[in-house]
Amino acid sequence: METYTIIVLLLAATIRVATPLLLAALAGLFSERAGVIDLGLEGKMLGAAFAAAAVSAVTGSAWLGLGAAILTGAALALLIGFACITHRGNQVVAGMAVTIMVVGLAPSLALAWFGLGGQTPQLAAAGQRFTALPWPWADAARETPFPGLLYAELLGGHNLVVYLAAALVPASAWVLYRTRFGMRLRAVGENPHAVESAGVPVNALRYRAVLISGVLCGVAGAYLSTAANAGFVRDMTAGKGYLALAALIFGKWRPGPTLGACLLFAFTDAAAARMQGVALPLVGVVPVQFILALPYVLTVLLLAGFVGRAVPPKALGMPYAKER
Amino acid sequence: MRIPFLWSCALVLAAVGGNVRAAAAADFQPAVVYDMGGKFDRSFNQSAYDGAERFKKETGLAYREFEITNAAQREQAIAQLARRGATVIVAVGFTQASAVEKVAKDFPNVKFTLIDAVVDLPNVQSVVFREQESSFLCGLAAALASKSGKVGFVGGMDIPLIRKFALGYREGVKYGNATADIFENMTGTTPAAWSDPSKGAELAKSQIGRGADVIFHAAGATGTGVMQAAKDAGKLSIGCDSNQNYLQPGSVLTSAVKRVDVAVFNAFTTARAGTWKAGQLSLGLKEDGVDFALDQYNRTILTPAIEARLKQAKADIISGRIKVSEYK
Hints:
heterodimer; A: mainly alpha; ABC transporter involved in vitamin B12 uptake, BtuC; two-stranded antiparallel sheet; 13 helices; 2 strands; about 70% helix; B: alpha/beta; Rossmann fold; six-stranded parallel sheet; six-stranded mixed sheet; 10 helices; 12 strands; about 45% helix; globular
C-alpha cells in the first residue's frame, strides 16, 4: 500500500513538473514547424513569469496576471519575429538575445518597482494565484486508496493551467494536421517557396506561428510564478526553456511524442526529489549525489540510444527571401 | 616639451589620486558582501542586510555593499572593496572563505569578518554559529507539534553546514518523540540550490505526501517554496536564519533564528570603536547568537506547553545538561 501511495504521488508530481515544460515545448513546436528556431523560449517564459507575478501582486487578480503574461510573451515573440522574419536576422542569435535581455531586465524592473531585490512581493491573498481546483468528493475518495487516491491526487487536485496544458496537446495536433492553417504552417517550415507560389504569404504565416509561441510561453510563465510558486524570483525558469526545446527535438517535432518526452523529463526530476533517503529494495539508501545526477544520466542514455533519427523541418533556421 | 608636460600631468594626477586615497582612508568605510540568493532572500542574507541597515540608522554612516550573482564575482568584489578603501569588509556565507583568504593576504590593513566559515589570518575575524542548538529546539518543537509523528527537513545545497542543521534537528525531534519519522531532502549540490522555490515546494509536497506535517527548511530563498507548499496543504513549516514567522502567518511554527544581523552590526561597531579583534567567534544559544522565534504570528500555533518545553531545553543546552552533537 505504501508503495502504491508513493507511486501515485510521484505521478501527480510528474504532472505538475511537466506542465511548464509541455507548454513551452508546444510553443516551440508551432514556431519551429513554421521554420523559426525558438531559442527565445526561456526568455519569453521568464518575462511572462515576471509580468504575471507583478500584475497579480498589484491588482490582486491572477487572471489579469495571466493576461499580462500572455501580452508579454507575445510582445517578446514579435520582437524575435521582427528581427528574424522581417529583417531575416539569425534566428539563434535573436532568440538568445531576447533571453539574455529578459534575464537582466526582469530583476531590474522588479527592483525598480518593488524594491525587493529583483523579486516580486509574495502572492498570499486569495485570487492572486491559480490554486488547486477542488474536485467533488475528493476528500471522501481519499479514504478508499484504490481508486480513490488516483481520483483525488492524479486526476484532481491540480490547478487550471495543468488541465489547459493537457487539453492543448490534442488541440495542437488537430490544428497542425487537420486545419488549413496548420498544413500551410507546416509547409512553410518545409518549403516556403512552394507555399509562396501557391499564393500564400510566407512571412504573415511565420508571424502568426511565433505569436502563438509567445502566447503559449506566456501561459507557461504565468504557471511558474502564479500557480506553481507564489511570486517571481531571479532566474526562476532555471533552464526549463532549453529543456523544453530538448523535449521537442526528442519528440521529433510532433505533439504526442513531445508530451511523452516532457513527462519523461518531469518524471526523472520528480523521482529524484522523492528517492533521496528512501531505502530501495536490494540496494538500500542511494547517495544523494547519485539521485540528483539521475535525470541527466537518463536523458543522455535515452537521447543516445533509444530515439532514432530526429529530422527537423527542412527550412528550419533559414530566413525566407521572396524571389524576384 | 612633450615629455615634461606629460610628466607634470602624471604628477598632478598622482597628487590628486593620493589625496583622494588619503581622505578615503581617514573615513570609516564599512562594507558587506552578500552571498548568492541576494540581500532580499527573506532569510540568511536579509539578516545580514538588517544588521548593516541598523548600523546605518544608528550611526548615520553609509556602507558599501555587493550582491554576488555568480561565483566568479566573489574575489573581484571583495578585492575591489578593499582597494577602494573599505575599513572593514563583512563577507556573508561560507562560500566566500577562499576569496577572503586570498584578498586578506593582499590587504593586511583591511579588516575582514567572515560569517559561517573559518579563515586563520591575523586580519580575519571568523564568526561561526552553533546552528545545531537552534535546530535542536526546532526539532523538539516539530516533534511536539506533529500529529502524525512524521516530520520533514529540506536542506539547500548539500554541504556540511546544512548537514549540521539536519543533525541538530534530528536530535531535537528524537528528544521530543523517540519514535518519530524524519524525512530529509537536499535541494541540490550547486549554489543554485539556494534560489529554487519550485524545487523546494516539490520536495515539501513529496514529504507531505509521505505523511509529514511539520517541515523545517534550511535552504535560503528555496525555503519560501517549502513554506508556501506547507501553507497550501494546511501543514506547518519552520523558518530559518531570519525570523520568517511573518511570511505565512499561522502556518510557520517557529524559525531557527541565526543572528547574522548581530554579527554584522557588531563587526561594524567594534571596527569603528577600535575594539575589533581577529580570530574565531562561536555564537550559540548562550551568546544569543541563535534562538527560536516567538512573536504574534506564531503565538496561536506554538502553544504554551511547547513553549515551556523549548525554554526548558534551551536552559538545559546552555547549562550543558543536553549535549547537541556537532556535525563533523
